[in-house]
Design goal:
Elements lengths: L1 E9 L3 H8 L12 E6 L4 E8 L2 E13 L3 E6 L5 E11 L2 E10 L3 H9 L2 H20 L51
């Protein structure tokens, strides 16, 4: 399982940054390779993206969502992937956006690309483009302020970062001590 973790500071209030991130269908405006994101309902998304030399499609489920704090997701079809984006207010008009993603590179080209840091650079570029997108607008294109509790953890909310202070090979979606969301096991 490969993992990417990146952060960026954006010059907008935390609510503005979070609200824009909930507008999943705008992701192609700032995420390289993402061709389309369709929101199927308030928990499910359908993605279409160019990965390496091919176009892939998959569905993802929002496992947990807390306004102005975090969104945690995992795939329900297609290649294994999961992640979390956290929002931290650093001041009235300054927010840190922290993104963690885990994924399984498939095939030789994706594996080599991952080892060469292509995904890490792509995520870093996506965050830079998100920063440019939201700062140039000055306001979000929309918002969804609902909350989703995580059915896999006591109390419904993951505590802290998915990986803070835990083992180095931890990744978003791993099951640990009940504080993480579960990832379905792939049959082998």
């Amino acid at each position: 399982m490969a993992r990417v973790e990146k952060s960026i500071e954006v010059n907008v209030p935390v609510r503005t940054a979070y609200d824009q991130w909930t507008q999943f269908e705008t992701f192609p405006n700032f995420m390289e390779g993402v061709q389309e994101v369709r929101q199927l309902d308030d928990r499910r998304l359908h993605w279409k993206a160019k990965v390496g030399m091919k176009t892939e499609e998959w569905d993802a489920e929002i496992r947990e969502q807390v306004p102005d704090e975090k969104i945690i997701w995992q795939n329900t079809s297609g290649s294994t992937n999961a992640g979390m984006v956290k929002f931290q207010s650093l001041g009235p008009d300054l927010t840190r956006v922290h993104l963690e993603m885990s994924y399984d590179p498939e095939g030789f080209i994706e594996t080599v690309g991952d080892k060469l840091g292509f995904m890490s650079r792509r995520v870093e570029g996506d965050l830079e483009r998100f920063k440019d997108f939201i700062e140039s607008r000055g306001a979000e294109t929309g918002a969804w302020r609902g909350t989703h509790q995580n059915p896999s953890v006591p109390g419904g909310h993951t505590r802290g970062s998915l990986d803070a202070g835990e083992h180095d090979d931890a990744s978003p979606g791993d099951t640990d001590d009940g504080t993480r969301h579960e990832r379905p096991q792939r049959p082998f």
